[in-house]
Amino acid sequence: MKRYRNPPLLNNTINRLSTNLIGSWRRQTARARRIVVIVNPAAGQDRPILKTINTAMRNAGVDWNLVVTRQAGDGFRLARQAVAFGATTVVVYGGDGTINEVTSGLATSKVDVGIIPGGTSNYVAGTLSIPRDISQALALILRSDYAVHPVRLGRVNQNNFLQMVGIGLEANLIQNAGREWKDRFGVLAYFHAALQSIANPQPAHYHMLLDDQEVDVDGVTCMIVNADNLILPALKGMPPGSRNGLMDVFIPQRADLKAIFSVAATMAGAGPEVVMLPHWQARRITIATDPPQLTQFDGEILGNTPVKLRVTRRLVYMIVAPEKAAALGHQVNLSEFDETEWSPEEPLDDDTLSSLEP
Questions:
Q1: What is the pLDDT of residue 254?
Q2: Residues 229, 118: one domain?
């Protein structure tokens, strides 16, 4: 499926008619695929994967290469190198943090992204209904009729995020779970951290600027969800339909057992019961807290509040099952975003590209 460069006038017409409205679609793979697999060997699950990957790729008859991350930032760098190499698909094995780095590196390209879940909670993979089993995830990626879903990156301070930013209790659970506990007990590490939090809940006052609306509320945690990127049943009780760049903000106000374990279930990939939580929506969000609260994005610790968030026009194309694409099929009207944001057809200058780096 070659991409041809159209004359500028035709490009402008196509942009107005097609790229402003984006939803899931099936990718036809008549062209030869060139796949680069990025593996994080320090990911949360200790599983032999190389033989499984090699067998699947050989049976599919695709051209593929494998590279390994060694330190923070490698996912971004290797993803950029894969684009320069001419990859048509980048497959990432790792947890949410590795996926975040790789997708940040691919945000200026149209390379498809496949996920092999290898982390502890695998929240991003779960919300896209990607199988946890390695062989099943590879089978999805290597389908001849796989679907792709365009995902818009969010921005929190100077970092990109795919799915969610958590403040307060939720970030504390991630920090308290720790690598040793996650290696030993997997997702149960989050519930162990929740038990620790019950004895010493830390409510805070949240002062939020939601677009032009000021909101003051007390709560034990705050969850900001880039919900257009999710298969919506993962968030029980959330009303269906496209938010078109509106992030959903939830603040549990009670530090009781149910609230704490609901947040722990979110971290474990089960999805929170958000229907009874105070709820707002906005495209641009600023949050300050008293006292300052720990913040995380896609499972990575960011630091303390205050934070600023927005949803950008930067797109990555996630491989999903065709039968799941309908649940992600809402269209995104990019024309309603700021014109200063990057357009899918527009090359980025060096300054903008450097701002994408983690």
A1: 67
A2: no
